[in-house]
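Why show two proteins at once? Because comparison is the fastest way to build intuition. When a single record is shown, students tend to memorize it. When two are placed side by side, the eye starts asking what differs. So, the first record is below.
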Amino acid sequence: MGLLRFAVKTFRLSLMRVGAGWMFALLTFNFNRVSISDLGAMAVIVTTLIGLHHFISFFQVYWGRFTDRYPIFGLRRTPYVILSNVGAALIFLALPSIAVGLGERSIIATIEAFALIFLFGVLMAMNGSSSNALIAEVTTPKERGAVVAFIWATVIISGIVSAGISRVIMPVYSPEAMQQLYNLTPIIVTVTVLLGVIGLEKPISKEEHRKLLEQAPEKGEAGPLETWRVATGLMKRNPQVRGFFAFVLLAILGIFLQDAILEPFGAEVFGMPQKDTAAFQQAWGAGALLGMLGIGILSSIFPIQKKTIATLGGLGVAGGLAMLMISALTLHREIISPALLIMGLGIGLFNVGALAMMMEMTVEGQTGLYMGMWGMAQGLGNGFANVISGLGHTVMIEGGLVTPSVGYGLVFGLEALLMVLAIGILRGISVQEFKGLTRQEITTALAMDAAS
């Protein structure tokens, strides 16, 4: 009976993340490819646009603290998860026409695009902190390895499914086909999030709510900027917090520099159509699934350290990226599929190990705050990855400094180097030393902020 309850809980937590997987996949394998390669939009504008919501990731810390203290109908996570998912999904209805405007280099369309993606970023910051906090609160440390593996497997499956559906609905680009594809987003997101979270969270009592409110700063509720100061104060005083933040930031940079330009790489270096570059998502996604499911099974049998899992995953990602660099520089298309498979295997292992470590690197009563901090590191890494990759494309390739094959090869090589550096930082991180951090240090940070 206990195993059945665990399976149902894990499945529902996974459903909660399907919508996010679908939305991020559409942005990073379809919207980018169509805007840059099919419509001729400036690459740095498109990739910065895709990365914009990540730069708003400091909101994750704010939403983490906000939802810690302000439940709705006694629920601190569920209402925020639902609201953020549905709101973000509705934005996708406007993106096909935005892509056309970007291709026409329209200033109005560019402003509209940045405004919509800014809103998307605020909503996904709420979603990230709330959903990760919910996962941390309804699972035990022993369960988390398997739960995280299954959740991320589901997220990647949703990305693979979205790529498959896009290949059917839009084998080649047309405005009508793109609109039809994006119109599915609110339906898929709303249905899956409601099935996933309704009834999963236990409401808190009025007495528990009163105690939460008593933890608020004396000078009123801190806003996003004040919360950012609290987070940076904790990083200054605790080297484990600082080191783990740097690890997450660099590792995400190492993984996702290719994310916004992978499909344009296939189009510009090898002349591949949309239906073929959409298969890139399926190739690395399949590898990630194998990695996560495999390590999920192994970690349930053998006591494998989360740091070891993340390390092996990071090295696998670096190896796959090195192969992509070779493919670009030597114009060997046949290397792409095995490279993406190896990179995916590494991403699968890394996701399980790193996310499980994030959930351990928290302090009781402040889960939302710390999950927000780690989410902020992820967001900044993703944001910088998009901007740097797009800037590199515009300066090196569109500017005519190097050929597309050399430009993409340089980006893939830089990614591999960053991932190796991140793994070096990870080796010095200790969850046990981090646990020496007490609630008093958080109170001190709040007091220092109030006095400033």
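Second record. Ask yourself what differs from the first in the token line.
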Amino acid sequence: MTVRTRIAPSPTGDPHVGTAYIALFNLCFARQHGGQFVLRIEDTDRVRSTAESEQMILDSLRWLGLDWDEGPDVGGPHGPYRQSERGEIYAEHAQRLLDAGHAFKCYRTSEELDELRESRKAAGLQMALKPADLALSADEQARREREGWPYVVRMQVPGDGTCVVNDMLRGAIEVDWAQVDAQILLKSDGMPTYHLANVVDDHLMGITHVLRGEEWINSAPKHQLLYEYFGWQMPELCHMPLLRNPDKSKLSKRKNPTSINYYRRMGFLPQAVTNYLGRMGWSMPDDREKFSLDEMMASFDIQRVSLGGPVFDLDKLTWLNGVYIREDLDDAALLQALRDWAFNEAYVSQILPQVRPRVDTLSQVAPLAGHFFSGLPAIDEASFADVKLERETLLKLLQFLVWRLEGVSRWDKETLLDEVKTLGEHFELKMKVLLAPVFIAVTGSATSTSVMDAMVILGSDMTRARLRHAIDVLGGVSKKQAKRFEKEYREL
């Protein structure tokens, strides 16, 4: 048997360090066994998936040195490797389940589903909706089908009992079927959910081992049941521990920069980031901190993974990056690293149109464009002294902007302007007044290049990191303030 692993990211935003972490371990496991590593794009979310996000995923994983044997850009014998191009395959398999009685068409409306959940909650019943809960009378089912009502395809699931799932690290995992709902397999627009597409694609692509985050443990019974329904052998499962913030909470963009683009923009070396991700819950046999990807693959053993939540500590990564710079880069290599990082034609060409109209001598370029070549700006409370907003309003404005930008999937000037205008209307502020603190937070100065253009060039995660940094230097948002802000933001 040839070992085959895969990574299947969704192109719905910036490439996440958690994706790179799982990709790294899948790659190392495959190479340890002389196997193959596959990259598949799960782009069934038609609203949020973008070609730009897909390209960022490919670019960032390659930047880290994580190459794949098969994928949408390199091809392979099991393509296509984008789920959006495999619709007929999923429809065929969904029909197989319907014909065998393992799935059913559900014509329930969203309002009816909400009522069902509320009534069950009021009755103190478990929340998982079962086929019996969703069933309509035969006449009503026939009427809705005859009238062409939209429907989804759901899987049949047991009402009680226990499902046992075997895990390479955790052994036998027991999950109560009562907590497993009648999962949607095919949405009303004909696109599959993760659960159907994941199982069908893994089987057809010959995946033998699935290393994924532990957040998928509760979904494992559904996947195991689908394999049984289809009569296929399920790949071996390995649920990796989730990356954690220093406070042990799940790593999230609201607390820590999570985009690989951020670490690339900040000037971290790819080999240092890959090395650090390799230390997330795993260790070399000799416990050394610094090792190359080739060394990790040569020494890899999945049983050395610790189930304790690995802490993604930015200070530790920064220290390790410094070790790489001092120990591995001579002057020529350091110069090349600087060119690769920011002083390259592609990046500088984005900046020149911003500075050319504003300078009379070349010596003015560096001070004016410095924010494009730095990390977090050197600002403090005094930097905002001339901003004509009360402290709470200032904090609220910056926090609202961070939250708005978290939901932006297409990072371009037009989209960002729309978000800023929405906030301007909410706060009843003119653009000049609203953008004044944003200018300082993002560029570090009240007089610099266009802040909107700077946000586009810097990218989403770096922009949000600078806004969060400004909130911190202004004293941060208290718990009481956060509750008030969140309530008002929901109304927005």
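One difference worth noting in the second protein: The chain has three domains: 4-85+243-324, 87-240, 381-491.
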